[in-house]
Amino acid sequence: MFRPGLRSSFKLLHRTAPSTLVASRLTAFRYLSQEARSSIERAVKAKPIVLFMKGTPDEPQCGFSRAAVQILELHGVHPEKMQTYNVLADPELRSGIKEFSEWPTIPQVYVNGEFVGGCDILIGMHQSGELETLLENNGVIPKIEGDASSTPPEDASKEKSSS
Amino acid sequence: MPIDVIALEKAIKRAIPVTHLEIVDQSSGCGDSYAIVLVSESFQGKSTLARHRMVNDLLKDQIAQMHAFSQKTYTPEQYEKLQAQG
Known about the structure:
The complex is a heterodimer of chains A (163) and B (86).
Chain A lengths: L3 H11 L5 H10 L4 H11 L4 E5 L9 H12 L7 E5 L4 H11 L6 E4 L2 E4 L1 H10 L1 H8 L15 H7 L4
Parallel strand pairs in A: 1-2
Antiparallel strand pairs in A: 1-3, 3-4
Helix pairs in contact in A: 4-6
Chain B lengths: L4 H11 L4 E6 L7 E7 L8 H11 L1 H4 L4 E7 L1 H10 L1
Parallel strand pairs in B: 2-3
Antiparallel strand pairs in B: 1-2
């Protein structure tokens, strides 16, 4: 599931400070530059679904990222509606997105620019049926015929509960 | 640096009331990958995202040193229901 070789090379890159405690504190207090912030702001709105992951949908580099891709595929999310970013290819994005979302792990999923969660939350929402509703209400996947309501996505997103 | 189960447990129990806690080391012992199941009344009325943010925050220093961290968060009522189903 994990790639020890890759992992250790990244650790080396990040652990320049002598103490890991110091390193993590520096990371916690580091200020995300306005430029980086606005480029991430654009990135999370690039498509109705935006997934920050390790690797690519065809070649995920981590089991958690693979699970996120698989769940979205399972719901029939059209590739045109989804943008994925490989954080392993962009160390700045990798740390930037964690700060931006205030979320410590990858993958991260955004729906219409709004942070949904990581792998655990995606799996939980998939199992409870919330994910399907969220995707339908945001116009990412078509509502199943026979549904009473045919609310347009714009309105639906407003009344969506904050899950 | 590896994190041990006791450090995680302490950090959680220091911060919130815990009804039930399972911590599974998924790293075959090297201590950089954990999955937890946490049952607490402090999750009452909070969305899953809010609960996870809460746990992420109280384990901020530990998670920063891990490769992988996975969590399941329940209120005591939810957990009881879940146990009854299983």
